[in-house]
């Protein structure tokens, strides 16, 4: 796929990949410590091309939910029998052993300190496909916001809607508050930056749109009413979906991450946030025309882009006050800008 689409062979740069853990980890100064040798994964639309997941999901040790079986009694991911609100093979998921992926060596601890962090923050209105976050306070606010889009594994009522879930982890806070977790992450980013060994931080818009069709509407935030964009959702196969715009493919995002982490991507300052955030202008394997398609400012005026950002920031602060209160001012106001 990569050679055909991008003229790039990832194996020229990547060797001996292994899976370390799922999403419950402890980021410490010396290592990233895992917590389990298994994981939960969505299996809808799973095919043998997704080799690691396929290997583990068809293992006799896997546990399945909302998953059908074929005539031989084996798990089937075709979506012929089971439906989720009229959509075949939706909300199918499995619990798997990492060793069954064939890409796990039994070690759930990283070989060194954290060097790269990626936020998966799908959005509809203001997000580029990929950005590099330079400012630690900005990165901490992204973590505190936990901006995402509801999906079928949560509840039908939130599918396709923008949500703010502090640290992307509600309700998995153990021992201390969201705010304490965010400040700890912020302090760690600053310490590494001051040592001259910064952690590379990225934000990816994976399952969102650039830019979805939307309408401005009144939105009540506590006792206040603001004007905010709402995506136009159209139900397809029983699932509400945003319409319009584009999104990067999985392969394009993987290519970007490969090129970015090896220092091959060229950037420019974000048009609003400046040097705090960088946007790609050259990614080996992707055309300038494709990068233009993945740039939200291609589709709206700068005045409209600022209005969309201001509405997003205002709503995010409402949720910060509820979910992550008493943040340091430099984090709370990290995304603020003047017209």
Which short descriptors sum up this protein?
single chain, alpha+beta, Phosphoenolpyruvate Carboxykinase, domain 2, 5-stranded mixed sheet, 20 strands, 24% strand
Brief sketch in words of this structure:
This protein has about 350 residues and is α+β, with helices and mostly antiparallel strands.
Descriptive overview:
By secondary structure, the protein is of the alpha+beta class. The protein folds into two domains: 26-101, Phosphoenolpyruvate Carboxykinase, domain 2; 116-332, Phosphoenolpyruvate Carboxykinase, domain 3, CATH 3.90.228.20. The protein contains eight helices and 20 strands. It has helices spanning 2-6, 51-57, 136-145, 178-194, 250-261, 288-293, 302-323, 329-332; strands spanning 26-27, 32-33, 38-42, 63-65, 68-69, 75-76, 83-84, 87-88, 93-97, 116-120, 130-133, 147-149, 162-164, 200-204, 214-221, 224-231, 233-236, 239-242, 266-270, 274-282. The chain has a five-stranded mixed sheet with strand order 10-14-11-20-19, with helices on both faces. The chain is globular, with a radius of gyration of 21 Å.
**Count the helices. How many?**
8
How would you classify the quaternary structure? single chain
Question: Which word captures the global form?
Answer: globular
Structural class: alpha+beta
**Mean pLDDT across residues:** 91
Helical content (DSSP H or I, runs of 4+): 10-25%
What is the CATH top level name of the largest domain?
Alpha Beta
- Strand arrangement within the widest β-sheet reads 10-14-11-20-19
* Strand portion: 15-25%
Order of helices and strands: HEEEHEEEEEEEEHEEHEEEEEHEEHHH
**Distance between the first and last residues' Cα:** 43 Å
């Amino acid at each position: 796929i990569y050679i055909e689409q991008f003229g790039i062979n990832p194996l020229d740069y990547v060797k001996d990949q292994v899976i370390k853990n799922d999403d419950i980890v402890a980021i410490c100064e010396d290592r990233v410590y895992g917590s389990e040798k298994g994981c939960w994964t969505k299996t809808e639309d799973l095919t043998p091309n997704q080799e690691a997941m396929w290997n583990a999901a068809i293992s006799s040790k896997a546990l399945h939910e909302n998953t059908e079986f074929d005539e031989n009694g084996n798990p089937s991911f075709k979506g012929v029998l089971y439906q989720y609100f009229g959509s075949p093979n939706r909300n199918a998921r499995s619990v798997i052993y990492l060793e069954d992926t064939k890409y796990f060596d039994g070690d759930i601890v990283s070989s060194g300190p954290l060097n790269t962090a990626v936020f998966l923050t799908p959005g509809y209105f203001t997000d580029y496909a990929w950005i590099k976050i330079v400012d630690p306070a900005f990165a901490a606010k992204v973590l505190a916001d936990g901006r995402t889009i509801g999906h079928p594994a949560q509840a039908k009522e939130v599918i396709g809607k923008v949500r703010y879930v502090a640290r992307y982890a509600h309700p998995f806070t153990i021992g201390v508050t969201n705010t304490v977790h965010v400040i700890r992450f912020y302090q760690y980013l600053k310490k590494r930056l001051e040592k001259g060994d910064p952690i590379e931080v990225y934000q990816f818009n994976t399952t969102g749109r650039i830019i979805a069709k939307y309408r401005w509407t009144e939105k009540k935030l506590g006792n206040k009413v603001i004007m905010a964009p709402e995506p136009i959702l159209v139900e397809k196969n029983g699932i509400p979906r945003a319409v319009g715009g584009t999104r990067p493919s999985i392969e394009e995002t993987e290519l970007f991450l490969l090129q970015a982490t090896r220092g091959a991507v060229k950037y420019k300052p974000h048009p609003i946030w400046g040097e705090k955030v960088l946007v790609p202008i050259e990614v080996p394997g992707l055309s300038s025309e494709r990068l233009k398609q993945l740039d939200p400012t291609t589709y709206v005026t700068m005045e409209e882009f600022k209005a969309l950002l201001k509405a997003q920031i205002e709503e995010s602060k409402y949720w910060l006050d509820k979910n992550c209160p008493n943040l340091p001012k430099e984090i709370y106001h990290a995304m603020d800008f003047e017209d």
